[in-house]
Structures are given as C-alpha cells and as structure tokens.
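Bug #2210: token dump truncated for Leucine-rich repeat receptor protein kinase MSP1?
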Amino acid sequence: MASRCELLLICVFSLFFALAHSKTLKRDVKALNEIKASLGWRVVYSWVGDDPCGDGDLPPWSGVTCSTQGDYRVVTELEVYAVSIVGPFPIAVTNLLDLTRLDLHNNKLTGPIPPQIGRLKRLKVLNLRWNKLQDVIPPEIGELKRLTHLYLSFNSFKGEIPKELAALPELRYLYLQENRLIGRIPAELGTLQNLRHLDVGNNHLVGTIRELIRFDGSFPALRNLYLNNNYLSGGIPAQLSNLTNLEIVYLSYNKFIGNIPFAIAHIPKLTYLYLDHNQFTGRIPDAFYKHPFLKEMYIEGNMFKSGVNPIGTHKVLEVSDADFAV
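Reproduced locally. Full output below:
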C-alpha cells in the first residue's frame, strides 16, 4: 500500500513540476510583447520579464491569465481596463488564438476593431465599452461562435448593426448603446435563443417594433429590451406580449404612436415599463395597475387622455401595493 501512495505522490509532484516549467507558446509571447510595446507606460510598468505567463520567480503579467495545454502555456484571458490606454486597437491581440476573455474597457482606444477579431474562435467575453472606437462594427464578430457577452457600448461606432451578430448561438448579453448606429435593428437577432439582454439605446436607429419581432418565436429568452433614445416609430404591437420573459421594456424618447395594447399588461414578469416622451394616445389599461410584478411606469411626455384614473399627466407612476387592490 505504501508503494502505491508513494507512486501517487511522485505522479502529483511530477505534474506540478511540469506545470511550473512549461514554456509559454512563442506565438503568445510575441503577441503580448507587441501589445506591450504599443500600450505605453501605464501598463508596461507592471509587465515585468520576458514571459507574460511568468518566468521563474516572476509572476504573470498583470491582467494576463494563462493555462497549460500539453507542454505549453497559452494566454486565455487579457484584462487591461481603466488604465487610460491611448491609441488604436492593438491588432496583435488577434494572434492570441486561445483567448476566452478580452477586456479592454474604459480606456481611450481609437480607430476600428480590426476584421481579424474573427480569428478568436474561443472568445466568450468581448468587452470594449467606454473607449473611443470608431468605424463600423465588423461583421467578423459573427464568427465568434462561443461568444456569450458582447459589450461595445459608449464608443463612436457608426453604420448599421451587422446582421451577422445573429450567428452567435451562445450570445446572452448584447450592449450597443451610446454609439452612432443607424438603420434598422436586424430582426435576425430575434432568432438568438439565449439572448437575455438587448440594449441599443442612444443611437440613431429607425424602424418599428413590429419589424423587429416579425419572426415567429422571436427573442424567446429576452428579459431586458432597451430601445430608448432613437427614432423608432409606429405602435406597440400586441405581439410584443409573446415575449413572455420580458422584465424591462424601455421605449422612452422615440416617435412611437397609438394606444398601449391591453395584451402588454399580461407579460407575466414585467417589472419596469418606460413609455415616456413619445406620442402615445388613448388610456392606460387598468390591467397594468393590477399586475403582480410591475413596479414603475413612466408615461410623461405623451398624449394620453385624462379623466379616468389612472391616466394622464402623472410624470412618474409608481405602482404601490394599494394599486393592486381589486
């Protein structure tokens, strides 16, 4: 029995020894050193040594996570955020082919995202929000089939939302707000079976909700829909109530018209409904005020009829327990 325990210990120590002495893939070392050369002193001061995954007594570079594959270490995560990086998107990043997470948010990156971003086939999280990135959103992002989180908000992207984003079967969170995007929101996004959060607010988008949900079974998992501060028009179709997982619907500051369909009050988990600053007319169906989860409705800046409570000129309607009384 003792010999078997000794053999097990030898195997364990051999494994740790191998991990400790694995070499980092030359491709990744070269890429990180190119990135190091392009990012400036704010990052370089904490990136010490020749090996980004650590070398001897030196730890891995700050924000760099590595894992072992066979006899080599590879870079799987790069998180360098809120350090005021200035300059174009570091194209050498696209040579880190084993990346699962790329987080460069809250910097001062400029220029376009290079089309080579489509090479990062293992990427799950891409976070580039709060930069100064420009040009169009590259359709090559649609090649990142494992992507679950895409954060491109608070930049200066222009052009249309690429319909290629609908080719991301695992996508759960899509943040595109606060850019300069134009055109219509691709209805193809509604085919994303796992999408929970869609935020395209504060852009220059046009079109209607009816167009957005025109496919049968659109947005089956969607919880949060942010369409605010655009140039969207038309009415709210009753078919929106088919999105039964909706919790937040944010339609403020658009050009929507017409009555609020009674069916919307029967979205089971609806919690926040923002209708303010549009051109809605008619009355708010009483069913909204008996909804078991609805906490807030914002209706100011419309043309709702007055005279029947609860209707009209309320700036913010906060639904309380009393409103649920039959």
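Output looks complete on our side. The longest helix spans residues 2-20. Marking as cannot-reproduce; reopen if the truncation happens again.
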